From TrEMBL, chain A:
Domain of life: Bacteria
Principal subcellular localization: membrane
Protein name: Multiple sugar transport system permease protein
Pfam family membership, one: BPD_transp_1
Location of the protein in the cell: Cell membrane
Domain ABC transmembrane type-1: 93-283
Organism: Microlunatus panaciterrae
Membrane topology summary: Multi-pass membrane protein
Annotated family: Belongs to the binding-protein-dependent transport system permease family.
Keywords: Cell membrane, Membrane, Sugar transport, Transmembrane, Transmembrane helix, Transport
Transmembrane spans: 26-50, 97-118, 130-152, 164-183, 204-226, 264-282
Taxonomic placement: Bacteria, Bacillati, Actinomycetota, Actinomycetes, Propionibacteriales
Automatic annotation (TrEMBL), chain B:
Chief location category: membrane
Keywords linked to the UniProt accession: Cell membrane, Membrane, Sugar transport, Transmembrane, Transmembrane helix, Transport
Disordered, as annotated region: 1-20
Entry's transmembrane regions: 29-49, 88-113, 125-142, 177-200, 233-252, 282-302
Domain ABC transmembrane type-1, residue spans: 88-303
Annotated membrane topology: Multi-pass membrane protein
Protein's recorded name: Multiple sugar transport system permease protein
Protein location: Cell membrane
Signal peptide stretch: none
InterPro entries recorded: ABC_transporter_permease, MetI-like, MetI-like_sf
Cited Gene3D superfamilies: MetI-like
C-alpha cells in the first residue's frame, strides 16, 4: 500500500515517444472525452440541485415547469434561514466545527504518538501491544455503537461533547497507518538528533513531526471529513438538540418535514461549504490520504 | 507487567552496565507515547466489546447491567426467521449487487481517466467531489429533489419526456423502486473515492510492462488489460473489494434518512439502532452486534483468502 502512495504523488511517468495517431485512436480519444463529459454532467447534477433549490422559493422548487436557473435568485433565503428560530443551524454548524476540529487534533496526537512508539522505540513487549491494536481493526466501527453507547452512558457522557469526541479518538487504523509511515521515515535524521542529545520525545517533536507535514496533513484532512460527515454516533450520543451536529440537525428536519424546502436545501448547501473548501485547497493531501488509507470518506 | 520488566532490567544492569540506561529510557519513552492511546483503547474499545458480549447472553431490557443469564437465547431469537435474519439476507443480496457494480464503475472511470492528456485534474476533482457530501445531504437531494415521486421531481420529469408515467420512488414496495434511489445515491458518493484508489494503482504499474507486452504482440485494449493491468491491480482490487463489502453491511445513514424504520430494505444496523435505542433492549441489540461483527470478520477473512490478501503485493 505504501508503494502505491509514493508513486501516486509523483507525476505519472508516461512514455514520451511520439507516434503518429491512427484514425482509430483519434476516434477512441474523442469517445473517451465524450464519456468523461457525460459522466461529469451526471456527477454535478446533485450539486446543481442543492444550489438551485437553495436559492429558489418553495413554489419554484415544486413547479412542474422545470427551470434550469430560477428566474429570481432569492438571496434573502440566507437571512431567513439564519434567523429561523426553529432551525438552529448555527448551533449545529458550531457543534460540528468544534467536534471535527477536536477529533482531528486528538486523533493526530494520540495516534501519531502510538504509531511512533510502535515503529521506533525498542521495547520488548512492543509486538504484543501492536497485535492488540491490530485486532481492533477487525471489528467494524459501526458495529460497536451499542457497546460503546453502554460505556458512554455509564460515564454519564450522553449529550456531552466529550461523549461524541473521545470514544472515536482511539483509532487502531490511524495508529497502524502512522506506524507504517514512521517505519519508512529515514533513521539517519533521528540518529543525528540523538547524537545532539535529544531523547525520543525531543527527537519526535523537533525532527520527526516537522519533517512529516504532508503525511500529517493527509490524515488530518481525511479525519476531518469523516468527522464532519459522521452520522450514527453523533445521532446516538447527541440526543438533545443543543448537541446536534449539522448532519443530525439536517436529518431531523428531513424526516420531520417541518421546514421549508428552500431552507432545508440552503442548510445542506451551507453544511458542505467547509468540505468543498477543503477539497479546493487541500486536494493534494486528500488524494494522498485516500490513496494511502482507503478509509471510508 | 511493571514488576516483570523491573526484574528484567535489574538483571540486565548486572551484566552490561551501559545498555540498561538506554533500555530503561526506551521503555519509559515507549509508555509516555503509548499510554494515552492504550488506556483509551482499553476503556473505549476492549471494555465495551467484552461488556457487550456478556450482555448478549443476558436478558437486558432497559438496563445495561448484565442480569438474568439466558445463554444463547438472544442469538436464537435473532437467527430465527424474523426481521433481523431478513435484513441479513436482504443485505447479502444488496452486497452482491452493489459491490461488483461500484467496483466496475470506479475501475472504469479510473481507466478512462488514466491516459487522458488534458484536463485530467478537472475530471478527477469532479468525480471525487461527492466524497465531500455526507449521506445525509445526499439523501436530502435524492429524496426531496431527484426521486421525490411527484411530477416536479427530476427523475420523473426526465422520464415524462419519454412518455413514462410518474413513479412513486420511495412510496411503493412493489416493484421496489427504492433500490434505484439507494443504489444511485451510493454509487454517486462512493465511486470517486474508489476511483482514486484505482488511479493510484494504475500509476504504479511500470510502463515497461506495457512495452514488453507490445513487443510480445499483445494487442492494446482487452489483451493488455486482461494480462497486464488486471493482475497488476490485484492488491488494490482486494482492498477495494474488502472495503466495499464491509461498507455494504454497515449501511445506515441513507437508509435511516430515506426509509426510516421500514420493514423492507432495513439494514442490520438500522434494526439494531431501533432495538437498542427505541426498545432499550440491550440483550438482543448486543447479540445482533456480535453476529454482525462476526459475519463481517468471516467475510473479510474468506475474501482475503480467495483473492490472496497478504501475499506479496507486487
Amino acid at each position: 500500500m505504501t508503494d502505491t502512495t509514493t508513486v501516486a504523488t509523483a507525476a505519472p511517468v508516461l512514455p514520451t515517444r511520439r507516434r503518429r495517431l491512427r484514425p482509430g485512436q483519434v476516434v477512441a480519444g474523442v469517445l473517451r472525452y465524450l464519456a468523461l463529459i457525460v459522466a461529469t454532467v451526471v456527477f454535478l447534477i446533485p450539486f446543481y440541485l442543492i444550489v438551485r433549490n437553495a436559492l429558489s422559493s418553495d413554489l419554484e422548487i415544486t413547479s412542474p415547469n422545470w427551470q434550469l436557473i430560477p428566474s429570481k435568485i432569492h438571496w434573502e433565503n440566507f437571512s431567513e434561514l439564519f434567523t429561523d428560530a426553529s432551525v438552529n443551524l448555527l448551533q449545529g454548524l458550531a457543534n460540528s466545527a468544534l467536534i471535527a476540529v477536536l477529533q482531528t487534533a486528538g486523533q493526530l496526537l494520540l495516534c501519531s504518538w502510538a504509531g511512533y512508539a510502535l515503529a521506533r522505540i525498542p521495547y520488548r513487549h512492543a509486538n504484543k501491544i501492536f497485535y492488540a491494536v491490530l485486532i481492533t481493526l477487525m471489528i467494524p466501527p459501526a458495529v460497536t455503537f451499542i457497546p460503546s453507547f453502554i460505556i458512554v452512558s455509564q460515564l454519564q457522557w450522553v449529550d456531552t461533547y466529550q461523549g461524541i469526541i473521545v470514544p472515536v479518538l482511539f483509532s487502531g487504523f490511524t495508529t497502524f497507518l502512522f506506524r507504517q509511515y514512521f517505519l519508512s521515515f529515514p533513521r539517519e535524521l533521528e540518529e543525528a538528533a540523538r547524537v545532539d542529545g535529544l531523547g525520543y520525545v525531543g527527537s519526535f517533536w523537533r525532527v520527526v513531526v516537522p519533517n512529516s507535514g504532508a503525511f500529517f496533513s493527509a490524515i488530518a484532512v481525511i479525519t476531518f471529513i469523516a468527522s464532519w460527515n459522521a452520522f450514527l454516533w453523533p445521532l446516538v450520543i447527541g440526543q438533545d438538540s443543543s448537541k446536534w451536529t449539522v448532519q443530525v440537525a439536517l436529518s431531523t428536519f428531513l424526516t420531520a418535514q417541518t421546514i421549508n424546502l428552500h431552507e432545508l436545501f440552503l442548510a445542506a448547501a451551507v453544511s458542505i461549504v467547509p468540505l468543498v473548501l477543503v477539497f479546493v485547497f487541500l486536494q493534494r493531501y486528500l488524494v494522498l490520504g485516500v490513496a494511502n488509507t482507503g478509509i471510508k470518506g | 507487567m511493571s514488576s516483570s520488566t523491573a526484574t528484567l532490567e535489574a538483571s540486565a544492569v548486572r551484566t552490561t552496565p551501559r545498555r540498561p540506561r538506554r533500555m530503561k529510557e526506551a521503555t519509559r519513552a515507549f509508555w509516555i507515547f503509548m499510554a494515552p492511546f492504550v488506556i483509551g483503547l482499553l476503556i473505549f474499545v476492549y471494555l465495551p466489546i467484552v461488556w457487550s458480549v456478556v450482555l448478549s447472553f443476558s436478558r437486558a431490557q432497559n438496563t445495561v447491567t448484565p442480569g438474568d443469564w439466558v445463554g444463547l437465547k438472544n442469538y436464537v431469537d435473532l437467527l430465527r426467521p424474523g426481521p433481523f435474519l431478513n435484513s441479513l439476507i436482504t443485505f447479502t443480496i444488496f452486497a452482491a449487487f452493489i459491490v461488483p457494480l461500484t467496483f466496475a464503475l470506479s475501475l472504469g472511470l479510473a481507466l478512462l481517466l488514466n491516459r487522458v492528456p488534458v484536463a485530467k485534474g478537472f475530471f478527477r476533482s469532479v468525480f471525487f467531489l461527492p466524497t465531500a457530501c455526507s449521506y445525509v445531504v445526499a439523501s436530502l437531494v435524492w429524496k426531496l429533489s431527484i426521486f421525490n415521486g411527484v411530477r416536479f421531481g427530476l427523475a420523473n420529469t426526465v422520464l415524462s419526456w419519454f412518455g413514462v408515467d410518474n413513479i412513486p420512488w420511495l412510496a411503493t414496495t412493489s416493484p421496489p423502486w427504492y433500490w434505484m434511489v439507494i443504489v444511485t445515491l451510493r454509487l454517486w458518493i462512493q465511486v470517486g473515492f474508489y476511483m482514486i484508489l484505482f488511479l493510484a494503482g494504475l500509476q504504479s504499474i511500470s510502463p515497461e510492462l506495457y512495452e514488453a507486452a507490445e513487443i510480445d504482440g499483445a494487442k492494446p485494449g482487452w489483451q493488455t488489460f486482461r494480462f497486464i493491468t488486471l493482475p497488476q491491480l490485484r492488491a488494490t482490487s482486494v482492498a477495494v473489494l474488502l472495503l466495499l463489502l464491509i461498507n455494504a453491511y454497515q449501511a445506515f445513514d441513507e437508509f435511516f434518512n430515506l426509509l426510516g424504520n421500514s420493514s423492507f430494505a432495513r439494514p442490520p444496523l438500522v434494526y439494531l439502532y431501533y432495538t437498542a435505542q427505541g426498545n432499550q433492549d440491550f440483550g438482543h441489540g448486543s447479540a445482533g452486534a456480535v453476529i454482525l461483527a462476526l459475519l463481517i470478520m468471516i467475510l473479510t477473512l474468506a475474501q482475503g483468502r480467495v483473492f490472496g490478501f497478504g501475499r506479496a503485493d507486487d
